[in-house]
Amino acid sequence: MTATAARPGSTGAGGRAERFARPVLLAFLLVAAADLAGLLAGAEAVHLVAKPLLMPLLAGYAALRGAPRLLVAALLFGWGGDVFLLADNDLAFLVGMGSFAVGHVCYLTLFGRGEERGQAPAPLVTGAGYAVVLVVFLVLIWPDLPADLRIPLTGYSLLLTAMAWRAGVFGPYAAAGGALFLLSDALIATGIAEWPQAPAPDFWVMLTYIAAQALLTLGVLTKHRTKHKPGV
Fold first, then answer.
1. What pTM was estimated for this model as a whole?
2. Cα 207 from Cα 62, distance rounded (Å)
3. In the predicted model, what is the mean pLDDT of residues 170-180?
4. Cα(28)–Cα(58) distance, rounded to whole angstroms?
């Protein structure tokens, strides 16, 4: 075997995938920038076009990098949630929330497998901190939530908080992604509860959400060294 052929990613399918991965990542970043700029400018049409493209592009990048299948699945269920949440009605909101919930189950399963393979477990003190934050937030927001959304939102919040805590198994990037995901959905919840909002609230929701999914992806790819390992 020549020295060139021995280098991972230099030839063959792996190398071709790596070459495609970079343009896909660039496309993701450009679409993300367009979406955020559209939200700041009040260009709803830009958001309607850009938002559904984000997670397929990120999932495509992850797949081309040899990501675990559970990561790709989590991102695609996030895409399902993104699409349904574009519709302004309660049924679509619940279906979208359900799609995100399945994505969180994918993340939790992936994080559990990480622990089985020797990754350091998520610290209990961090879990306790997340639990306190969740309880305080639910107590404060509960009276202002629509009655028919209280139980679904509470169940979803428990699952999301568990995901955010367990994300630390895959290192600081994933841990930051989990925290930002929790923050993004908390901003959505405060909007539903009709709490006072910052200027351009949708911009902040999408900024934290895009950063969350990107950091979770980076954390998993970095920790697994997926360039050299098959997908889970």
1. 0.88
2. 20
3. 96
4. 6
